Amino acid sequence: MDAKKLEKITIALDAMGGDHAPDEIVKGALLSLKENDFNIILVGQEEKINNLLSIQKYDEQRVSVAKATQRIEQDEHPAIAVKRKKDSSINICSKLVKDGLAGGMISAGSTGAVMTSAILNIGRIKGVKRPALAAFIPTIRDPVLLIDIGANVDCKPNYLLQFAIMGKILYENLLPEIKPKIGLLSIGEERTKGNHLVQESHNLISKSIKNFVGNVESHQILSGKTNVIVCDGFVGNTVIKSMEGTAEMLFHQLKDMFLHNTVSKIGAYLLKSALKNLKKKFDYREYGGLQLLGINGICIKAHGRSKSKAIKSSVKVAIDTINSKTTTRIGSEISKYLE
Amino acid sequence: MDAKKLEKITIALDAMGGDHAPDEIVKGALLSLKENDFNIILVGQEEKINNLLSIQKYDEQRVSVAKATQRIEQDEHPAIAVKRKKDSSINICSKLVKDGLAGGMISAGSTGAVMTSAILNIGRIKGVKRPALAAFIPTIRDPVLLIDIGANVDCKPNYLLQFAIMGKILYENLLPEIKPKIGLLSIGEERTKGNHLVQESHNLISKSIKNFVGNVESHQILSGKTNVIVCDGFVGNTVIKSMEGTAEMLFHQLKDMFLHNTVSKIGAYLLKSALKNLKKKFDYREYGGLQLLGINGICIKAHGRSKSKAIKSSVKVAIDTINSKTTTRIGSEISKYLE
Questions:
Q1: Pairing of strands B104-107, B10-14
Q2: Angle ∠(A14,A18,A19) on CA atoms, nearest 5
Q3: Are residues A103 and A188 in the same domain?
Q4: Are B149 and B267 contained in the same domain?
Q5: B138 upstream amide cis, omega within 30 of 0
């Protein structure tokens, strides 16, 4: 590969990850070059990537290709695959970040493999106990950042405190116009509600974090009143998937009912654009993907179904996160709470 | 009060619980008398109840009133209120079941107070470690029974095994035409996925329960492919509330968009009945409420917003549950697994 340590922000993009790789990934990379000032390293099968590049017009100074002979599949065991497939595109991405040749990595591949590879190769920020996966969720007001949504299934109160700190920093950095309110996901608003983990975490977070608004129940997430909502990774994953499942099922049912008879078909036709807007409003793919916080660099897991536009928004989020010095700020904030 | 030990099924109904008490509760009771062969004890402020009864026509032989001078409010601490307000309508209901004067109780009052009162007064079935709260959730296929949805926030694997046993029995008894598939809520389909509790519970349940289909992810709940889904009460409560929140928010947004302009208003008008049907399809209030399983009698927590129709369906579910000898069956199945 010919990537050099550059002054400009450089992103390592896994060209082989996701359902539409490599075509849509490469397309997305070139789209984002037009809108943002950065360099990109496309990681994967050289020949395929070069073929795709050869039919496009772009600034060749800003694009390089890093060879990866292997690809980790969705159905592989993440930890085993990351260790066995040393030369997989995900591993090459995380090594580029580790070696300082890229400031961040993006992959639409297996979430588990991306996390494992990033944690193993890039490593944690000093003082961070557990890196956590954070997701922006669109709401009727400002987006909500839910953290952790699956990196840590068994947590301790001080992990949740760190999730709160990291989530708050990311939110402030990406949405500087909002002063985020921090909440703890529970099953009742009073501080005595919830399981042991949540009750103890409540005490810890309330002592340490300004703007902590206390417990938030899951039906309040989409109200958008609380900006950063903290939970363990098992609960976060369950919540985000149940919201997705409910929305998908309702849209599916709506579609069925709209096709029911001629009257409903006409009604649906008249509502077409409104419905499309609604669906788009709650499409979390608009938000660039998931962020793995707490590692020594930026790592974004784009949605597996990402097409070029989603990749472009992941790149934008990666650049904004690097520019706002999220990693450095997490390091300095976390160190304040170290015993 | 003049309730007698009767051969006929008798239900103790808390006339003072819920947003529309006592009017809609009494109305619902009288509606259900027309459709089911049972006796009812209305529990609460005698004068109010008698006033409501006096303006209705009904079979006086089948209705009695049990006096309760107190009422537990939604915002009271459940355990404290149950202990302090000895003469609350909820406590009188559970005592009627305890004394064998009623086979089951129904309340639309505070969930925590109903559970606490039932567990304290009626007591557990021998061998049951923790009573659990079960909810039927409508899906596009058969309904799903989610258990536990909030009675136990910190669980052990053998609690979850018991939830599976109790949920399976309730499902089989209320929907005898379906052979229920039992699943465990987790964040991945493989048995190695999930937190410690879920992984250990998976091993235990898979050894003990026929028709155990393994892990189910939360976005699959509404597919209706798995009939009984087991989880700890913190996760169950979070999941059910996030599904409710998502559905409510989407319907709210739909309404907003429909009112956007004249074209969308006409479209919405043409779809009115289809939308109403859809909303009704996913209205969990149609299913009679939550069941507290594992106590020595039937205890149903009707929705706080219950009107007469919802109360009528709670009564129907209570009668069916009593008729199918759910309590006896839970006792005998649980005893098979006792060490």
A1: parallel
A2: 145
A3: no
A4: yes
A5: no
- CATH number of the CATH domain containing A66: 3.40.718.10
Average pLDDT value for residue range A114-130 = 97
Which residues of chain A does B281 touch, with a Cβ-Cβ cutoff of 8 Å?
Answer: 253
Is pTM beyond 0.90? Reply is yes
A132-137 and A298-301 strand pairing = unpaired
Distance from B73 to chain A by nearest Cα, in Å? Answer: 16
Q: Is residue B100 part of a domain?
A: yes
Which residues fall within 8 angstroms of residue A159, CB to CB, at 6 or more apart? A129, A130, A132, A152, A232
Residues 277-306 of B with CB under 8 A from A: 277-278, 281-282
Neighbours of A14 (CB within 10 A): 32
pLDDT in tens, B227-284: 999 999 999 999 999 999 998 888 888 888 888 788 888 888 888 887 787 777 766 5
State the ipTM, two decimals: 0.91
A144-147 vs A132-137, strand pairing mode: antiparallel
Q: What is the pLDDT of residues A244-271, one digit of tens each?
A: 999 888 888 888 888 878 888 888 888 8
Q: What six digits make up the tokens of B89?
A: 């309508």
Residue A331 lies in a domain: no
Closest Cβ–Cβ partner in B150, B239, B267 for A238:
B239
Q: Is A115 on the interface with B (CB under 8 A)?
A: no
Confidence tier at A83 by pLDDT (50, 70, 90) = very high
Same domain? A155 vs A283: yes
Residue B249 touches chain A, beta carbons under 8 Å? yes
Nearest by CB to A241, from B217, B248, B253: name it: B217
A102/A100 Cα distance (integer angstroms): 5
A322, A9 contact by CB (below 8 A):
yes
Is residue A16 a contact partner of residue A45, using CB atoms and an 8 Å limit? yes
